[in-house]
Amino acid sequence: MPSVTHEALVELFKNRPTLAAEMLHDALGQPVPTFTEARVESSDLAEIVPSDRRADVVVVLLVGEQQRPAMAIVAEVQLGVDPDKPYVWPVYVTQTRARHRCPTWLLVVAIDAEIARWCSRPIDAGHPGLTLTPLVLGPAGVPVVTDAEQAKAAPEVVVLSAMAHGQGEAGEAIGVAFLAAAAGLDEERRAVYGDLVLSSLNAAARRTLEAMMKSGYEFQSEFARSYVAKGVEKGREQGRQQGILEAKAQAVLAFLEARGLEVPAEVRERVLASTDLAELDRWIRRAAAVTDARELLATTGS
To answer: What whole-number distance in Å separates Cα of residue 53 and Cα of residue 62?
Structure first.
């Protein structure tokens, strides 16, 4: 089952149809045709023989009054190594090309550098001369967005920036840039994007950003006010202690997922069932260092 992080990343590309083309051109330096519209199309690539063929996002770049397809982009979010993908990715490309009758490129988004390297390997499709080399957007290719105006113009890009660079020195500046952009988003995107950004920042940047939202800092946006208000309301309804426990548990899981780690069901259940604030705090810190989500429990003797 896709993780919360996977689905949130997919939503970035669905909410901003031009994002795939922008990343290909601006981040990866690939030639993209001039287009008048970018449209998200059905990602169901079922064949005549029924099979599970569903890409994450398919974007078609259209030109002219006739809205003729100039290029299709199959955008795939990859958070871990999946031995099935070298077999299904060529199918996604050929099926999309056949459906829209235009050049079709594969863009793989991987926020972990090691996974990005794995995704970049050429795929031998089994026919002489037929090799597919995915175009991979790894953390090195994602721009560091710290300018408020740039963030307002492309909120999805600043979210990607937080996920790729939020653990570094620029984490706080990226978070502040996102606050400036959040006021222009609808309530649902504010909530999803805000959770993604906060869970992606290093601990110091996250504390600073949360303090800014609560203190009335000049960059305080509608997102900040709604974020704090939501926490207050939740605390009143469910009790402050329970609200804190749930928030910390979700932070542990979100941090693991933001780092591209698969969270097994037993780990998820154990974290969500915890009623020990100190334990959850330890897990939040350890979530930044473990290489396997199961290590989170093993290091505590659980």
So the answer is: 24
pLDDT of the residue at 96: 94
| Spatial separation of the C-alpha atoms in residues 180 and 224, rounded to whole Å | 10
- Given pLDDT bands bounded at 50, 70 and 90, which one contains residue 281? confident
**Amino acid, single-letter form, for residue 2:** P
Using CA atoms, how far residue 293 sits from 56, 286, 300, in Å, is: 24, 10, 12
- Residue 136 CA to chain centroid, in angstroms? 14
**What is the pLDDT confidence band of residue 141, given thresholds at 50, 70 and 90?**
very high
Separation of alpha carbons 27 and 204, rounded Å: 28
- The rounded distance, in Å, linking the Cα atoms of 251 and 72 is 36
CA 170, 171, 172, 177 dihedral sign is: positive
Exposed / middle / buried, residue 191 (Cβ in 10 Å: 0-12, 13-18, 19+): middle
pTM score, whole prediction: 0.68
Instruction: State how far the Cα of 10 lies from the Cα of 4, in Å rounded to an integer.
Output: 10
The tens digit of pLDDT for each residue in 154-213 reads 999 999 999 999 999 999 999 989 988 887 888 788 888 888 898 899 988 888 877 776
Can you tell me which residue has the tokens 């946006």? Answer: 221
